Amino acid sequence: MREGSYSFEWTHRRISGGEFPADVLLTRMEQRGKMILQATVRDITERKRTEDALRKSEEFNRNILESVGEGFLVIDRDYRVITANRAFCEQENTSLSEIVGKPCYLCSHHIDKPCHEMGIKCPLELTFETAQPNTALHIHRDKRGNPIHVEIRSFPLKDASGL
Fold first, then answer.
1. Same domain for 16 and 49?
2. b/e burial code for range 130-156 (CB count within 10 A of at least 16 → b)
3. 3-class DSSP state for residue 29?
4. What does the pLDDT average to over 91-105?
5. What angle do CA 91, 118, 100 make, to 5 degrees?
6. Gyration radius of the chain's alpha carbons
7. Is the Cβ–Cβ distance between 37 and 27 less than 8 Å?
8. pLDDT digits (tens, 9 = 90+) for 15-34
9. Which domain holds residue 112?
10. Residue 94 sits in the same domain as residue 150
11. pLDDT per residue as tens digits for the range 107-162
């Protein structure tokens, strides 16, 4: 380290011998004409516990999505796919990376504009407007243009306050 500072995570040892995860910041500085290296060590045990709990929660939620045998999409207000489960990807013969960020109507209907703009009842549009679940029967098309009869159910995602 010739100049500036450098930070990294490290397993640190207490005087008592116990170990803990630490964030270490090394800073090179001059003091009384000599270059010294100052080390600042911060215990990040609680942050690591929180990160682990979040990772487990995300994994749990993902496992729920993956265990559903029906095609399942999470869609934002711009009708873009946030995520999908394996059943949807298999049903559409696609991969998650191919559809995330794309409009749902492109991924499921294989059309280039929202279904409600084509006169088709869109349960998503109604759910976005009313914050209530909605259902509609649609005829989707597979990648070869063959019709597929699909029941679409949409549900609002709400936060802890109900919004």
1. yes
2. eeeebebebebeeeeeeeeeeebebee
3. strand
4. 92
5. 40
6. 26
7. yes
8. 999 999 999 999 998 888 89
9. 68-154
10. yes
11. 888 888 888 888 888 899 999 999 999 999 988 777 677 888 889 899 998 877 76
Q: 140-145: long-range contacts (C-beta < 8 A, 24 or more apart)? A: 140/108, 140/109, 140/110, 141/109, 141/110, 141/111, 142/92, 142/93, 142/110, 143/92, 143/93, 143/110, 145/110
- Torsion from C-alpha of 48, 50, 53, 55, nearest 10 degrees: -70
In a 10 Å sphere around its CB, with 0-12 CB exposed, 13-18 middle and 19+ buried, how is residue 120 labelled? Answer: middle
**Residue holding tokens 């600042």?**
40
Q: What one-character-per-residue DSSP string does 107-159 give?
A: III--SS-GGGGT---HHHHHHHHSS-EEEEEEEE-TTS-EEEEEEEE-----
Q: Would the pTM count as exceeding 0.70?
A: no
**Widest pairwise Cα distance in the chain:** 80
State how far the Cα of 88 lies from the Cα of 94, in Å rounded to an integer.
8
Contact between 114 and 125 under an 8 Å Cβ cutoff? The reply is yes
Residues 6+ apart with CB under 8 A from 2: 28
Residues 79 and 46 in one domain: no
CATH of the domain at 22: 3.30.450.20
Give the separation between CA 50 and CA 87, rounded to whole angstroms. 31
The tokens describing 135, both together, are 């259902």
